[in-house]
Design a protein that fits this description.
It contains 14 helices and 27 strands. It is α+β, with helices and mostly antiparallel strands. Strand 26 and strand 27 form a beta hairpin. The radius of gyration is 23 Å and the shape is globular. The chain starts with a helix and ends in a 19-residue tail after the last strand. Keywords: Ascorbate biosynthesis, FAD, Flavoprotein, Oxidoreductase, Signal.
């Protein structure tokens, strides 16, 4: 029976991938703002915020022009309302976009309908767009004009205003680098103003302006971005190939890899001792090929398959079954090799290299675009599909190798403990250059993303959650990695302001442009100022705190607060088959329960 169950699980993944090889249309995501009789709620794309509390606001407005956008800010200022901006998408995991207050004096401004203008200046290789324009629409427009946007995040379901304000990025150490905000050459910001100025004004910024570097990555705290001007290059193609190989040398060769390939990345599957090196450089426009990168995880997915995979993963987690998770991880990795992770030479993948225009290779998100009721993005909250955490840590390049060495030490204690992350996408390793943005990266950096199972209930512990908590704390506390502003669990932001040398300069600009703190909220302050909330029973289970007592975990279900196995200073919630003695609580390692 056991072997049949895991075979079924593996077949689910094979069917899932095979389904995604066909151009199936998807059920589009719901809008992030939904209004009811007593007001409106803001949701992210997963349907649940980190603290699982709703973001409730009294009303939302939908400007269609820059002047209407200015009037919305003026209304908020005149009436002393807390205000935040949301687009047609909502993929930020922390509650940066939530203006809610206990008094209810708050409103949302949506840029979902502020999306009409794309002005291309071919002579000066630049494009100016409304902040609500979606990334895919922008890319298509510039490609049609014979130009290319060099940097873009891997997921295209974002607005231009949203992606630049949160530091979204692709991967490159070449040229201006992989962060989109470092390709900004102009920006318009709507900020509160005096009554004599109409309560709000438009501030147009260029690189020479003193506050430009604050506005490039502003987290929505300075005002409302209305226009973004980005640099372009003449249209080009890219040639991509993956090399799935042994992971023995990642910590020694990651820098050389980034320097050799313009759009390099690495995907590491630690439980399988495998690394997939992406060989990705631009090629001339006349190079043969019309390929596409339709990333496997962002393709439309059968709702039945998504629900089945989630149900299977929950069963394995509740049963503490490593064998099942490792079978799933192996089958998923096999499929990724077979279909080149979603690269297509034409309709399907037939071999490396895959060559195609920049606009079809730089970002993906095909699950966003249709109305078929039986397919969706795999994480759509309406279907009870995939549900996971996403941790994203940004390291100074010189420290990343030592982080990998420590993770390997942890992995080598019991490799099967890492199968849970390989069910998703392993560790995705990308590269971004040093930035002048105050809340950007002050040095060349390496970014690592990894996804892992999240329970349906906040107080349900997760099997092997101590592994991911130790990796998380290794990254953010031992090696001082910075959290990606739009991702992560709350603990990743502890003392984050100390990690940015220009943080105080950003705060000074904030005081200058928004002296009444209209664009701040308790939720954004919690993230930006790295505040730890009040500790309570179970608070460490979802990263709302770091445990210091067993009650912060789930002692009733066998999860106790323990030191890390490699990073001894870490404090993690680890399962033990027997309760610790009163003299060893918080101090033992329970090696028998690895």
């Amino acid at each position: 029976m056991h072997s049949f169950w895991w075979l079924l699980c593996a077949l689910h993944h094979v069917i899932w991938a095979a389904t995604m090889l066909i151009s199936i249309q998807a059920m589009p995501p719901e809008p992030p703002v939904r209004c009811y009789k007593n007001g409106c709620n803001l949701y992210n794309s997963y349907g649940v915020w980190g603290d699982r509390k709703d973001c409730h606001v009294q009303n939302v407005t939908y400007p269609t022009t820059e002047e209407e956008l200015r009037l919305a800010v003026a209304y908020a200022n005149q009436n002393k309302l807390k205000v935040k901006v949301v687009s047609q998408f909502s993929h930020t995991i922390p509650k940066l976009a939530c203006p809610a207050t206990s008094s209810g004096n708050s409103m949302l401004i949506s840029t979902a309908k502020y999306n009409s203008s794309i002005e291309i200046d071919a002579k000066n290789l630049a494009v100016t767009v409304d902040a609500g324009i979606g990334l895919r629409r922008l890319i298509n427009a510039v490609e049609e004009a014979g130009l290319s946007l060099v940097a873009a995040p891997y997921w295209e379901g974002v607005s231009v205003g949203g992606l630049v304000s949160t530091g979204a990025h692709g991967s490159s150490w070449w040229g201006k680098g992989g962060a989109v905000h470092d390709h900004i050459v102009g920006l318009s910001l709507i900020v509160p103003a005096k009554q004599s100025e109409g309560f709000a004004k438009i501030v147009k910024l260029e690189p020479k302006d003193q506050i430009f570097n604050a506005a490039k990555v502003s987290l929505g705290l300075l005002g409302v971005i209305s226009k973004v001007k980005l640099s372009l290059e003449p249209r080009f193609k890219r040639s991509i190939a993956y090399n799935f190989t042994d992971d023995a040398q990642i910590e020694n060769i990651y820098m050389d890899h980034a320097k050799k390939y313009e759009f390099a990345d690495i995907t590491w599957y630690p439980s399988k001792h495998t690394a997939a090196y992406r060989y990705d450089n631009r090629v001339p426009l006349n190079a043969s090929g019309d390929g596409t990168y339709d990333f496997l995880g962002f393709q439309s997915n059968s709702i039945l398959i998504s629900k089945s995979i989630r149900a299977t993963e929950k069963t394995m987690d509740n049963g503490r079954s490593l064998g099942g998770k490792c079978t799933m991880a192996a089958s998923f990795l096999g499929v990724k090799k077979l279909v080149a992770n979603g690269l297509k030479n034409g309709l399907i993948f037939i071999g490396y290299p895959v060559i195609g225009p920049q606009g079809k290779m730089q970002t993906s998100g095909s699950c966003l675009y249709s109305t078929a009721a039986d397919n969706s993005c795999a994480w759509d909250p309406r279907i009870n599909g995939l549900f996971f955490y996403e941790t994203t840590a940004i390291f100074p390049a010189s420290k990343f190798g030592d982080f990998i060495r420590d993770v390997k030490k942890l992995r080598d204690l019991k490799p099967d403990n890492f199968c849970g992350v390989d069910i998703y996408n392993g560790f995705l390793i990308r590269f971004i250059r040093a930035s002048g943005a105050y809340l950007g990266q002050p040095e060349d950096s390496v970014v690592v993303d990894f996804n892992y199972f999240r329970a349906d209930d906040a107080l349900t512990p997760r099997f092997n959650q101590d592994v991911w908590e130790e990796v998380e704390q290794l990254a953010f506390f031992k090696y001082g990695a910075k959290p990606h502003w739009a991702k992560n669990r709350n603990l990743a932001f502890l003392d984050v302001q100390k990690k940015y040398p220009n943080f105080n300069k950003f705060v000074a600009v904030k005081r200058q442009l928004d002296p009444q703190n209209l664009f701040s909220s308790e939720w954004s302050d919690e993230v930006v100022f790295g505040k730890e909330g009040e500790k309570s029973d179970g608070c460490a289970l979802e990263g709302q705190c770091i445990c210091s007592e067993d009650r912060h975990c789930s002692p009733g279900k066998g999860y106790f607060c323990k030191p890390g196995l490699v990073y001894k200073e870490a404090r993690v919630c680890r399962y033990s088959s027997s309760p610790p003695s009163p003299f060893s609580v918080g101090s033992g390692s329970d090696k028998n329960d690895l």
